[in-house]
Write a structure and sequence with these properties.
An 8-stranded antiparallel beta barrel has the order 2-5-6-8-9-10-11-12. It is mainly beta. Helices cover 4% and strands 55% of the residues. The chain contains 1 helix and 12 strands. The chain has a single domain, classed as Lipocalin (Beta Barrel). This is YceI family protein. It comes from Pilimelia columellifera subsp. columellifera. Pfam families: YceI (PF04264).
């Protein structure tokens, strides 16, 4: 059974959820060489959500991403991103997000605020999320879906490497769009 987002009783969805890594994408987009975009994702992560539909501010989200799981579909680029120039995964093997606030901003929209830590630097960000639906899957699991994105400046997290281009500009943009397509399964 699938329920559309219109008229969802969010209070009825209150409970503990596990983010389903097989049906969730945590990705990013960066401009490359000033002419195109490179898209990537992290393939190894875990997350838990304690959703409170009656009192959204009581909602808590905790996500841990393994930096080594970065995947841009180019092995050489991925190794560079894992190294000291970018994520420095030997010293900082995980990227984390811990929520500090969650607010309903419209009938099907929410703002998730929390502390994002990359390379040992923690900054508060707010991610606007759209509720995408509720469904009971063929195995009897209640699933909820949310999508959102936010732009961060990678330099704010100590990710400063770049190369100047002969034609002007730089090889990698400072602004990175983080993208989240989340499917979470209600526990129990």
């Amino acid at each position: 059974m699938t329920t559309t987002t219109t008229g969802v009783d969010f209070a009825a969805l209150t409970g503990a959820y596990t983010i389903d890594p097989a049906h969730t994408r945590i990705g990013f987009v960066a401009r490359h060489a000033m002419v195109t975009k490179v898209r990537g994702a992290f393939n190894d992560f875990a997350g838990a959500v304690r959703f409170d539909g009656a009192n959204p501010a009581a909602t808590a989200v905790d996500v841990t991403i393994e930096a080594a799981s970065i995947d841009t579909r180019n092995a050489q680029r991925d190794e560079h991103l894992r190294g000291n120039d970018f994520l420095d995964m030997e010293q900082f093997p995980q990227i984390t997000f811990r929520s500090t606030d969650f607010a309903q901003t419209a009938a099907d929209a929410f703002a998730l605020t929390g502390d994002l830590t990359i390379k040992g630097v923690t900054k508060s960000i707010t991610i606007p999320f759209q509720h995408e639906g509720v469904a009971t899957d063929p195995y009897g699991n209640l699933r909820v879906g949310f999508e959102g994105s936010v732009v961060i400046n990678r330099r704010d997290y100590g990710v400063t490497w770049n190369a100047a281009l002969e034609t002007g500009g730089v090889l990698v943009s400072d602004k990175i769009t983080l993208e989240f397509e989340v499917s979470a399964i209600k526990n129990g």
